Amino acid sequence: MATATLSRPAAPPLPRRRARHVGPNWYAGVMGTAIVGNAGAGLPGSPAPLRDACTAVWVLAAAALLAVLAARATHWARHADEARRHLADPAVAPFYGCLPMALLAVGAGALTLGPRVVGERAAVAADWTLWTAGTASGLLVAAAVPYLMVTRHRIAADGASPVWLLPLVAPMVSAALGPALVPHAGGAQAREALLLGCVALFGLSLLATLMTLPLVWGRLLRHGPLPVALTPLLFLVLGPLGQSTTAAGAFADAGPAAVGAPYAAALRGFAVLYGVPVMGFALLWLALSAALVVRAVRRGMRFSLTWWAFTFPVGTCVTGASSLARHTGLHAATWLAVALYALLAAAWATAAAGTARGLLTGALPAPAAPAQSAA
Predict the structure, then answer these.
(1) Does the pLDDT value for residue 17 go beyond 90?
(2) Which residues, 6 or more positions from 351, have their beta carbon under 8 angstroms from its beta carbon?
(3) Is the pTM for the entire model greater than 0.90?
(4) To the nearest 10°, the Cα dihedral for 294, 299, 301, 307?
(5) DSSP per residue over 307-347, as a string?
(6) Is 255 left (phi over 0), alpha (psi -120 to 50) or beta?
(7) What's the mean pLDDT in 49-77?
(8) Residue 79 Cα distances to 29, 71, 75, 189, 361, angstroms
(9) What are the angstrom distances between the C-alpha of 30 and each of 115, 226, 242, 312, 375?
């Protein structure tokens, strides 16, 4: 009697299996790496050795961006079902805001650090390209993700999360980084349009953030701390705070080249009058978040991609403090920027080491769970 041998289908190659689980949260690593270079280069009195190191970090961030873009393209091409599941998941969909911020952060580094690597003309062209792509995709995400949350997602009473800020803060990153391109914008009309467009992006993001933050705060007060594994996500609240302070300072820097004297003077005043109180609240939130992270560590919090939330948001506070140091001349603001940068560097080293270890051991990338997405 003949017997038939049944064999299981061969498993897809490892790179393809891994690509299935490379979600939009992986852009957070690019953002966190780029901000280390950008923030270090912008520190008051940044020494030459630090600038050299920041240039190397920017090159690493650019390479990481290309790698994640390729992985995400493979994900969409071969695992469209998983991509659709991510969009339908209210815990994962907001991470689509990480893509425009990764583009913008690497583009900003191209302008400040890239000329030493690729030359001035190529660096400016790269920033224009990445800023335009990041701004366009950021506006799309800022509208599309809330639309999905309203029409498709079903969110529990205790479902408010700091990740809701991710698609909303992307236009603020455009607002903060666009003014650096004003000197390269050509005529007077183009320069003014670019600067005022960035101010409009600032308002768009700020007002949306002000509507969302009370929901996050209310969730914490009514339902208690986030799950242990998700506690690092509290640091995401620092993003719009530090980035808006940075944006206000950038408007003041670019104002004289783009708008008339009365408005340029008003922007200089706004940089300080807005930035000081907002940075004050950012420091309060940093203290609260750090205390909750210590609590989570004592309850067994282990490394996950959520730890990248310790990087980019803290980096925006570094650039915000550096902006205040420039516009006030206060040594206290300079020391604050340096202290925050030391925290950023330590957080980046920890997150990068954990991610590298996870990639080498095969523990990463991991599936994004509906209730416990990673940042």
Answers:
(1) no
(2) 29, 32, 307, 308, 310, 311
(3) yes
(4) -20
(5) GGGGTHHHHHHHHHHHHHHHHH--HHHHHHHHHHHHHHHHH
(6) alpha
(7) 96
(8) 22, 11, 5, 45, 23
(9) 20, 25, 18, 9, 12
pLDDT at residue 366, rounded to an integer: 75
Phi and psi dihedrals of 367, rounded to 5?
Answer: -60, 145
Helix, strand, coil share (%) of the chain residues, nearest 5: 80, 0, 20
Residues 78, 80: Cα–Cα separation, whole Å: 6
Q: How far apart are CA 47 and CA 43, in angstroms?
A: 9
Whole-number Å distance between alpha carbons of 316 and 330: 19
Residue 50 has pLDDT above 80, yes or no: yes
pLDDT interval class at 16 (50, 70, 90): low
Q: How far is CA 315 from the centre of its chain?
A: 9
The whole-angstrom separation of Cα 133 and Cα 99 is 10
The reply to whether omega before 365 is within 30° of 0 (cis) is: yes
Residue located via tokens 């902006």: 323
> Is the C-alpha dihedral spanning 41, 44, 45, 47 positive or negative?
negative
Q: Is 54 helix (H, G, I), strand (E, B) or coil?
A: helix
Residue 101 near residue 173 (C-beta atoms within 8 A): yes
The one-letter code for the residue type at 294 is V
Q: The tokens of 367 are what?
A: 């599936």
